[in-house]
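Give me the fold.
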Amino acid sequence: MTQVDDGKPLDDGSGFTPTSSISCVAAVINMVTSLAPEPGDRTLEIGTGSGYNAAILAERVGARNVVTLEIDQLLADGARSRLASVGYEASVVLGDGERGYAERAPYARLISTASVRRVPQEWLHQVAPGGEVVTPWLPNDRALGLVWLRVREPGVAGGWFHGAETFMPVRGQRRERADLAALWSATRDMAAETEERYDLDDVDVHGEFALAVLMAGVTAYRQEGGWFFLAEDRTSWARLAGRTAERFGDRDLLGEAVIALDWWRSHGRPKLYDFGMTVTPDDHRVWLGETANEVSVFQS
């Protein structure tokens, strides 16, 4: 972690929400491998951070072909100085990554080191047709899924999920973090215990991905000995601890999870790598195996 609270931690010591970090080297390399840049490819990076990823890109495509965008002035200044100190002449630009950087477009490659709920249309207009985009996708508060997309035409791209990486969201697509402890304290006495029995013991990272895709607007938190499901509007939740199941609100989130997982199991427990996504100006469509097999549609 290299920054908390956008560089302005509270004086009383509270908060400390991570807002920038250096990622695990394996995750960084997996993302660059998915991007597969070639020497000479003009490449746009979203989220400079420390500058480490920009340095790796510079080694591959040539520093003068790298444009890296950072929304935070302090981080941008630090990365620019750090890159220059080791001889990388990459362009570090202060700006909102969601808008891209049209001044140097078109790009052959675009990589984001921040997650997006919606792939910005600006990216798909600034990357040339046939070019590639790699970004972590965040359909809810903690989902995982690194997606590789090939731009087909301006504003339209499609491709496969390549990994389970997840990152902090771009600032323009943040949602307020759920305070699970406060929510639990305020509503636990109003929760109802259910007599039904639920078995989620076989749910692995691929099952979690399927839950994120199939349960739009619901976040699944894996907890010690069980699960906690929370609706996006915070009005419904469900908790499974051992054999004890509780629910609060109008939605039966455990029942929805069972339906989603039954679908996942009936389709042979597909890996997240078996899913793909098509992005258009209107929506994001997740499919299994081939584009005709749509699983879920997320509005842009």
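The first helix runs from residue 25 to 35.
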